[in-house]
């Protein structure tokens, strides 16, 4: 059981060292979940005397008014017999105090450092550890004495401020309340009992301690209180003075008396509470560690301090973005399939909408054939007319080809935006996020221009050179194909023109089918493939030319995020330390 109390001592010290005082904040608190003994009483109720009797040393500040102005977490450590007693403050970790008058002065000085030389109070605790052969392992929290009025130098709110501070400690269900009440005052007016009853009406976790029995009026005694008749608690009342002060007729109460007995009783109760709370504390710690790690992961790593480290960090973050972008294209993440949809649905549908048969209407054929002949009518076949009809039809494929290039460009831009939003580190650095986004967009624009040029060239190639074999394979009919003996007027009859239109449409459809396959290849080669290979190449080149100050500006981070990361890291350190301490106690068993 002593291991359990030592465990709580260590975790409480770690809490204070790392800024966890149990106050309301945006961070999870471990302090509030730890079992503790809070010493509560009115001013001049004898709180200091009780604590000093437990320790066996005079070490607390004395005086009138509010002497205790900050919570004092007092941790007692039993050491081997014959060892020299000493004290240590958490804020002075390498200094040992063997003079307890100096301990008293340091408590006063440390209080003034936090509150100033005034009568203000502070919720930030002072941690004091005392090592002695004459104590039991125990942790007590001495709270400012309750008061009824503000005195000179104190704000009007001091009464409520102290009550609120005391409440914040004793309202927790894992807190044992050590209620100090002077015997020479009516128990009904006891500040300690009154405030304890507010949070523990059944007295399940309140230990009553009666002080100043030697100052009771003549003819009165404390038997009714000690026997629980005046105010019943679950645990027997304890008298803090020496047994020698108790009249002989009340010696049967001696088993409850004395500071050593009080300390052992408190230790026993604390051990019981700790034992019952450990599983819950372990569960809380494990869950909180996971939550803190997850949030730290979302916030990203802290910024490097040297120029080389910053440049390396930018490169690593950029590569992370680039990898996520590639994963979208390769199907590891969603979105890349939209490119195939352009080739499999959008482009074919656009080609179908061209309606070449309308382009090759009878009047259009007659017009182009006649114009192509010029002053010299064709002799056998209207070759120039064919060329013009084919060119005027094929050139319309430029529209769908250009639209396919733009559609894939839009998809790639969308995938860039998705990759940026999915790159955790880029959320951390807004300037870098903008710079990477701009660099990627500029690269995609260059790739679109190259793709559009190459793809439209494919169409233009089909216009500039016809496939001769197609026409050679056509059946030759001299009589119908243009016998020179026929009159010029027979040459432009509907049947003849219709045959020309059919031939041209057949050729154009063949070209269209070919381009339907070659246009996607050109787009993938010029846009998709290049985006995968060199999306940020220009950015990397320019990055190496930047001044260090400009590089640093890319890693400018929201100050609130930086502060949050620091706070989370400190709190995670606390929880991991507590986790290790609990595990060590478990293994020791």
TrEMBL record:
<dbReference type="InterPro" id="IPR020850">
    <property type="entry name" value="GED_dom"/>
</dbReference>
<dbReference type="GO" id="GO:0003924">
    <property type="term" value="F:GTPase activity"/>
</dbReference>
<dbReference type="Pfam" id="PF00350">
    <property type="entry name" value="Dynamin_N"/>
</dbReference>
<feature type="domain" description="GED">
    <location>
        <begin position="497"/>
        <end position="589"/>
    </location>
</feature>
<protein>
    <submittedName>
        <fullName>Dynamin-like protein</fullName>
    </submittedName>
</protein>
<dbReference type="GO" id="GO:0005737">
    <property type="term" value="C:cytoplasm"/>
</dbReference>
<dbReference type="InterPro" id="IPR030381">
    <property type="entry name" value="G_DYNAMIN_dom"/>
</dbReference>
<comment type="similarity">
    <text>Belongs to the TRAFAC class dynamin-like GTPase superfamily. Dynamin/Fzo/YdjA family.</text>
</comment>
<dbReference type="InterPro" id="IPR022812">
    <property type="entry name" value="Dynamin"/>
</dbReference>
<dbReference type="GO" id="GO:0005525">
    <property type="term" value="F:GTP binding"/>
</dbReference>
<dbReference type="InterPro" id="IPR027417">
    <property type="entry name" value="P-loop_NTPase"/>
</dbReference>
<dbReference type="GO" id="GO:0005874">
    <property type="term" value="C:microtubule"/>
</dbReference>
<keyword id="KW-0342">GTP-binding</keyword>
<dbReference type="GO" id="GO:0005886">
    <property type="term" value="C:plasma membrane"/>
</dbReference>
<dbReference type="InterPro" id="IPR000375">
    <property type="entry name" value="Dynamin_stalk"/>
</dbReference>
<dbReference type="GO" id="GO:0006898">
    <property type="term" value="P:receptor-mediated endocytosis"/>
</dbReference>
<dbReference type="Pfam" id="PF01031">
    <property type="entry name" value="Dynamin_M"/>
</dbReference>
<dbReference type="InterPro" id="IPR001401">
    <property type="entry name" value="Dynamin_GTPase"/>
</dbReference>
<dbReference type="InterPro" id="IPR045063">
    <property type="entry name" value="Dynamin_N"/>
</dbReference>
<dbReference type="GO" id="GO:0008017">
    <property type="term" value="F:microtubule binding"/>
</dbReference>
<keyword id="KW-0547">Nucleotide-binding</keyword>
<keyword id="KW-0505">Motor protein</keyword>
<dbReference type="InterPro" id="IPR003130">
    <property type="entry name" value="GED"/>
</dbReference>
<dbReference type="InterPro" id="IPR019762">
    <property type="entry name" value="Dynamin_GTPase_CS"/>
</dbReference>
<feature type="domain" description="Dynamin-type G">
    <location>
        <begin position="31"/>
        <end position="279"/>
    </location>
</feature>
<dbReference type="Pfam" id="PF02212">
    <property type="entry name" value="GED"/>
</dbReference>
């Amino acid at each position: 059981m002593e291991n359990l109390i030592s465990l709580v001592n260590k975790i409480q010290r770690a809490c204070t060292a790392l800024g966890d005082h149990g106050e309301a904040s945006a961070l999870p608190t471990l302090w509030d979940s730890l079992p503790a003994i809070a010493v509560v009483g009115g001013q001049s109720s004898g709180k200091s005397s009780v604590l000093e009797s437990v320790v066996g040393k005079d070490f607390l500040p004395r005086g009138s008014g509010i002497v205790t102005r900050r919570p004092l977490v007092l941790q007692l450590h039993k050491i081997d017999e014959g060892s020299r007693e000493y004290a240590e403050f958490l804020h002075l970790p390498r200094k040992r105090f063997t003079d307890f008058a100096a301990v008293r002065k340091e408590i006063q000085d440390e209080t003034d450092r936090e509150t100033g030389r005034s009568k203000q109070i502070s919720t930030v605790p002072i941690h004091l550890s005392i090592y002695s052969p004459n104590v039991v392992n125990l942790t007590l929290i001495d709270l400012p004495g309750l008061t009824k009025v503000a005195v000179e130098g104190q704000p009007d709110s001091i009464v409520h401020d102290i009550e609120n501070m005391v409440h914040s400690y004793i309202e927790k269900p894992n807190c044992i309340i050590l209620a100090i009440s002077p015997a020479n005052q009516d128990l009904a007016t006891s500040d300690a009992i009154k405030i304890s009853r507010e949070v523990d009406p059944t007295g399940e976790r309140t230990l009553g301690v009666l002080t100043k029995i030697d100052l009771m009026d003549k003819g009165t005694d404390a038997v009714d209180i000690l026997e629980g008749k005046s105010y019943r608690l679950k645990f027997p009342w304890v008298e803090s003075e020496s047994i020698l002060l108790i009249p002989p007729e009340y010696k049967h109460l001696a088993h409850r008396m004395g500071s050593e007995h009080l300390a052992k009783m408190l230790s026993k109760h604390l051990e019981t509470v700790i034992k019952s709370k450990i599983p819950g504390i372990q569960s809380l710690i494990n869950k909180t560690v996971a939550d803190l790690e997850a949030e730290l992961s979302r916030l990203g790593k802290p910024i490097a301090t040297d120029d080389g480290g910053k440049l390396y960090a930018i490169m690593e973050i950029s590569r992370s973005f680039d990898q996520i972008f590639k994963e979208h294209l390769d199907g590891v993440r969603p979105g890349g399939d939209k490119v195939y949809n352009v080739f499999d649905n959008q482009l074919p549908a656009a080609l179908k909408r061209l309606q070449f048969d309308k382009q090759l209407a009878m009047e259009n054929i007659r017009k182009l054939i006649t114009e192509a002949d010029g002053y010299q009518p064709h002799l056998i076949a209207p070759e120039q007319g064919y060329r013009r009809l084919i060119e005027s039809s094929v050139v319309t494929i430029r529209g769908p080809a250009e639209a396919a290039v733009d559609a894939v460009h839009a998809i790639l831009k969308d995938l860039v935006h998705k990759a940026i939003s999915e790159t955790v580190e880029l959320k951390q650095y807004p300037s870098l996020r903008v710079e990477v986004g701009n660099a990627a967009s500029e690269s995609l624009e260059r790739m679109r221009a190259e793709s559009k040029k190459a793809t439209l060239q494919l169409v233009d190639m089909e216009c500039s050179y016809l496939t001769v074999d197609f026409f050679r394979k056509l059946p030759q009919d001299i009589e119908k194909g243009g016998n020179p003996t026929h009159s010029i007027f027979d040459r432009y009859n509907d049947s003849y023109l219709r045959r020309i239109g059919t031939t041209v449409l057949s050729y154009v459809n063949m070209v269209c089918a070919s381009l339907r396959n070659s246009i996607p290849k050109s787009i993938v080669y010029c846009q998709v493939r290049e985006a995968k290979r060199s999306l940020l190449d220009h950015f990397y080149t320019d990055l190496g030319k930047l001044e260090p100050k400009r590089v640093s500006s890319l890693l400018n981070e929201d100050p609130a995020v930086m502060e949050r990361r620091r706070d989370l890291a400190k709190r995670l350190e606390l929880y991991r330390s507590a986790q290790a301490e609990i595990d060590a106690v478990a293994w020791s068993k």
